[in-house]
Amino acid sequence: MIQFFIRLSLLCMLGLGLPVLASAAPSSVAVEGADYKLLTPAQPTVDPKKIVVTEFFSYQCSHCYVFYPVVKSWAAKLPKDVLFERVPVSLGRTAWQPVAQAFYALQVMGKVEQMDSLIFSSIHTQKTLMYDEESVTKFVSQHGISAADFTAAYNSFGVKSNLLSAEQKMKSYKIQGTPTMVVNGKYIVNGEGTKGYEELLQRTDRVIALVRAEQVRK
Question: Which H/E stretch holds residue 103?
Answer without folding.
Answer: helix 97-109
